[in-house]
């Protein structure tokens, strides 16, 4: 179906507006509410929530020798992050970032979880500094909730900073993602398990940053 000029312009305006909002902070940033989390996962004062996303993907593990025998070792995440916005008669999900493992140039190439903007390729690498399996918060059979501190960042195409402004990230409302309990023995060394998971990532920036 061929788009009319009006439709083309309309969608171009929407995309531009949404991109602009992400570059400056999610629409209605003041209305965003930080999640209720265990005390050790609270973000330090001086940081403000600017983006809430929902992620769908896998937590990846590889079967390797361990001190107690063959074991599934965490390899890295692979996920797509979305935001949900009101749409004509419902809601629409926009892909805003991808999440994966990559080398952090700020740490000499150390492998770190990575979040990269789908709009301007700006990137933040993170290091988990606290976690929680508190059953009052974390669902049974789910990976822990985390507090992640930025360990490196990189501006995107044309100097974009949609995500490179990030200082802290909270991983909450996790579902799934736990390493398999079977399937790893000496005959399976090198085997990779891709375990589905979902979570919400809350991103923060220094207070007053625009």
Could you walk me through the main structural features you see in this protein, from its secondary elements to its overall organization?
- This protein has one helix at 5-24, and strands spanning 47-64, 71-87, 90-104, 110-117, 123-132, 145-154, 166-176, 192-206.
- The chain has 210 residues and is mainly beta.
- It has one domain.
- It has an eight-stranded antiparallel β-barrel with strand order 1-2-3-4-5-6-7-8.
- The longest helix has 20 residues, at 5-24.
Largest sheet: 8 strands, antiparallel, barrel
Characterize the quaternary organization of these chains. Answer: single chain
* Tally of separate domains: 1
Let me know the number of strands.
8
Radius of gyration, Cα only, in angstroms? 19 Å
Beta percentage is over 45%
Number of helices: 1
